[in-house]
């Protein structure tokens, strides 16, 4: 690459960048963006381990736990490497954390978790959750999730998140000793539930699942939702096509291994041709073996796409929540205006519009003045409350829109940057693959010419 | 010097035998006079031929001469160039067929002029091959493409099929032209130069149907008899052919499989570019890189498609020809075996006859003979004479056969070495070419992806983005 122009942009100039290196670049970018949290500590998901234990229904089960390590930044930069603080968490706890964040910050496009079950696999990968490759990729995905949250201007400040990472000492604890293992796990869970988010989550879920119509849909959010739909559809298709192509390419490379075998056998019956054939055969074997690494690297690219596939979902969720917020505002406004109308009717005694009350009062006689007084008073209170409600909801809506829109802009920038990086790293991978191919076939050619 | 080519003098006690200029006559049974006549015509031997009638040499020294001249051949430039091209279809009332233009450029003096252009059809090539094989049963004739391909269900008049066949016919003729013995046969010359009607009439002069049948019957009989003492070197050849046949056909299969897998990969790859394009429609800032990506994938697809096509057009026919070659080699070894079997049988017969004579000389006159009124001595004399004559005839026959066998063995050995060399060259260049093409394919793809990176870099610079610091 030395010949291709000026080298002021180092990353692109270095086509030998491996995907893990570009992952590092991603991390570094997030750190530089500098939330206060990331300025303070380094976060990683260092290991994964299998555990067995009793589950909620007292049955034995096997599950995987992941080691979360945190390390103060200053110490690391001083050159000393203190033992990092660490704790083990399982996938379900990550899910709990995310659900909490979703409910608590509905206007944020919350980073997604790596997939629960392996999807879009090609034949080499099993869909087994216990498969070591899958576990490893999930470990990377979980670390990525934590870093994303930690680099988010709003989410990074959350206390529950901090506890999730550290949980060294709790103020609610009587003793100041750090908690161990399962006890710690349970303690954090309790803390989360104490926030009462579950109830909110349940009611939100119910509301979101109900069908409702917004009178004046916000065009921007409608467009965003539409974009989310398109993004999800096209990335799914891309992942599918890619997986199928990977499968086929695997076949092409592996069959070349048969050349290796036959050349080797053939060399045994030839005199002058023997050496050339034998060594050519070795190169064919090398070529066939090279596809394993190539496709493993491609999986990283697929993972990057998957992250945004799931992000698309998170984006749509925000739009949907906005709709709900707006609907609730509209409902409150409508309630208020109908209450006001009732008051007017009661006060003036005129029935403007047809109402059941009007009818019954006509049929069964008017109310007594005392009854009317009481009713009016009740309505006044309700109207006051209603006005408060509308004010609150308005504020809520405005805040939501502001917050959501900021976050969506942030998300868009992040997405454009990340996906562009992903495309570049894909190109780098392809270049590396081509270079390997050139090398192998040049070697083979040399051997063949000695046949 | 030309003249009756069939001159055969046996000098007892010394190994040298006069070998006729064109030994093709000797290869067939000389019982039939018509053949004799025909083959006596085929004695146009000029300079440059490997069988100079003025030299009366033993097969051994003949072989030395052959070798020597073969080395010379490498040093000298090629003096004959043959091409096969320009397929055309012809429609008659009975059939439709394809002819190919065969062009020859030569400086050889046995040719009347230096350039020739004729049209030939597949049948004509088949005829030539048959003639060469008949004339030289233990020499290795390069295979012709097959009559028609069953597996691909390819139509005879399909363009690709015709082109593949044309290339194979071209290679066939060139191999013949390069062969020291084949290229100087009359049949080859006529094939290259005669007008269509001439060729037809010449074809009719070939050995009659009956003689060909006779030859086949004898061959079958001989193969049934089997060979007793096959020389070690021919056993080795047999083993080699078995093994080589397996290997080459495996390579053929592997190549076909690679082509198949690659075509399936291309099917999937074809969809990648369009998907990226579809995505770019939903994006703003990301649209440009996505479109670039789609473009790169489309270009890679084209390169890959081209590469598979070349694999199919170049490597496959080369391997396929050598699969066919193994059949030829097996046939050649079989024919050599038959000659040896024939020789062994006749040797046995002679020994039996000699034993008979021995036995007979001890037998007293038979009663029958005395009844008939001949003196016992007379009868015995007659019988002995008869046996003596028969034995002489058989011995003459046997010596001819022995020469023929020795000739066949030596010819095969030499041609085997030559074939090996040609095979090595052919397959080496086929694989070297394949490797080169693969390198070129990867180089092209590398350039495509580097151009993508370059475009991203210049985009970044243009947008003033500081993403990559």
Concise structural overview:
Chain A is mostly helical. Chain A has helices at 10-13, 19-33, 36-40, 73-77, 91-104, 132-150, 159-165, 181-194, 197-209, 219-269, 274-348, 356-364, 369-449; strands at 41-54, 60-72, 85-90. The chains are: A mainly alpha (451), B mainly alpha (469).
Account of the 3D structure:
The complex is a heterodimer of chains A (451) and B (469). With 451 residues, chain A is mostly helical. In chain A, 69% of the residues lie in helices and 7% in strands. In chain A, helix 5 packs across helix 9 (197-209), helix 10 packs antiparallel against helix 11 (274-348) and helix 11 (274-348) runs antiparallel to helix 13 (369-449). The longest helix of chain A is centred in the C-terminal third of the chain and has 81 residues, at 369-449. The two termini of chain A are 34 Å apart. By secondary structure, chain B is mainly alpha-helical. Chain B is 68% helix and 6% strand. The radius of gyration of chain B is 32 Å and the shape is elongated. The termini of chain B are far apart. Classes of the chains: A mainly alpha (451), B mainly alpha (469). Chains A and B meet through helix 1, helix 10 and helix 13 of A and helix 9, helix 10 and helix 12 of B.
Distance between the termini of chain B: 90 Å
Distance linking N and C termini of chain A? 34 Å
Which strand-content bin applies to the residues of chain A? 5-15%
- Principal-axes geometry of chain B comes out as elongated
Number of strands of chain A: 3
Low-confidence stretches of chain A: 1-15, 169-179
SSE succession of chain A: HHHEEHEHHHHHHHHH
> Which range does the strand content of chain B fall in?
5-15%
Mean pLDDT of chain B: 78
Count of helical regions of chain A: 13
